[in-house]
Amino acid sequence: MWWYHLLSLSVFDRFTSNIHIVMLFAFVPPIASNESLIDGLKRTLVHFPALTAQLSDGREHSRRPCLVIGGEGGGALLLEAAVASNLLDHLPFEPSRHFKLLHPLTEEPEHLFQVQLNRFKCGGLVIAMTFHHQVADGQSMSTFFVAWGRAVRGLAIEKPPVFDRSLLKPRSPPKYEFPHRGFEFLPLCPNQDGLSLSERNINPSDIANIVLRYPLEYIAKLKAELNRKYTTFETLSAYLWRKITIARGLAEQEYATIRISVNGRRRLQPPLPDEFFGNVVLVALPGAKVKLLIEGGLSEAAQIVHEGYERSTTTTSSHLSISGRFMATRSSGRCTRWKGTCCRQRWRRIAG
After folding, report:
1. Which end of the chain has fewer beta carbons closer than 10 Å to its terminal beta carbon, N or C?
2. Which of 123, 137, 38 is nearest to 84 (CA)?
3. Residues 128 and 222 placed together within one structural domain of the fold
4. How far is CA 41 from CA 48, 70, 140, 182, 269, in A?
5. Minimal CA–CA distance to 141: which of 268, 276, 1, 264?
6. How far apart are the first and last CA of the chain?
């Protein structure tokens, strides 16, 4: 008889993308041995059982999507690989199809969490991890990475993860106060049968990945152009948003948006602890007509980003509102990507 525990997926877990995320960390020597890393990983995963669970649609268990912790199956995949070259010969990394050699496969993997330790000839190391996004967001994985690092150094976990899903319980009856269709959720479009979801699927192979590196001196130069003080994140977001919009040649009257992921833990009342493990992410969508965005310059764009980030989906009521919309409609929670949209994410708290 197998013992198991069910951990329900919250509204925000179900709202996020049904994909596996890949992360790579490069370390030049000296770095801990594989044996020490594996031992620390084992001791850390005991405190993060969601990463070794199985994802269930609920039909065999709680009638709602959930994580099955324990029981038959589950676990995490660990791979070790040797690379016959020096790590510094490959740094800084650039997007490449060869990255697939450094991490476990993400096409229908058997495990929600996978790790590959790539040891280079010089002793350097690239730790590659994949995890299912409906299990954790960036803040959650940051908590895990810090805990793993402490375990390797022989230190205890300072603040264990929190899995209490009742902290995100929607209001009863469901209540939503903001428009969500066409923003976080796919819009309904009229057709001959009434209304239907409007969805556009993009082949990942059609998306090009590039890495942009901005020196501190260049960022300081951009900030000097602004009419008031903005954060580095807001400044670079505004700069990239304008440049991408100009490069796309959008019509002046089109409405362009920038999609920003917002961590809701500290914005709820009462706030959730940073150690809450799961997804508490919503979307801020600052937007403007293309004409205003281009002619207003960097200062106008930065102000739009700042106000949109502070206003959109960053209050308790709007986080609760999306919970109400989800529960009232039982929506699939798929996100919209509008024409003219630029996407930015902001996960900074990765250090212990």
Report:
1. N
2. 123
3. no
4. 10, 18, 16, 41, 34
5. 276
6. 40
Question: How many domains does one find in the chain?
Answer: 2
Q: Are 18 and 133 in contact (CB under 8 A)?
A: yes
Neighbouring CB atoms inside 10 A of 150's CB total: 17
For residues 140 and 276, is the Cβ–Cβ distance under 8 A?
yes
Domain span holding position 133? 4-161
Which tens digits make up the pLDDT trace of 132-186? 999 999 999 999 999 999 999 999 999 999 999 988 876 667 666 655 555 555 5
Of 247, 248, 222, give the one whose Cα is nearest residue 301.
222
Domain CATH for 150: 3.30.559.10
Per the confidence metrics, is the pTM higher than 0.85? Answer: no
Q: What percent of the chain has pLDDT over 90?
A: 55
CA distance 112 to 129: 10
136, 161, 186 - which closes a domain = 161
Instruction: Please tell me the distance from the alpha carbon of residue 329 to that of residue 313, in angstroms, as a whole number.
Output: 19
DSSP 90-137: TPSP---GGGGGTS---SS-S-SEEEEEEEETTS-EEEEEEEETTT--
Q: What is the mean pLDDT of residues 280-303?
A: 92
Residues 6+ apart with CB under 8 A from 21: 130, 131, 132, 133
| 93-102: long-range contacts, CB 8 A cutoff, minimum separation 24 | 93/24, 93/26, 93/211, 94/211, 95/209, 95/210, 95/211, 99/22, 99/24, 102/24, 102/126, 102/128
| Residues facing residue 78 across a β-bridge | 115
Both tokens of 185, joined, read 């959720």
For residue 173, whether the previous peptide bond is cis, meaning omega lies within 30 degrees of 0, is: yes
Cα–Cα distance, 47 to 316 (Å, whole number): 29
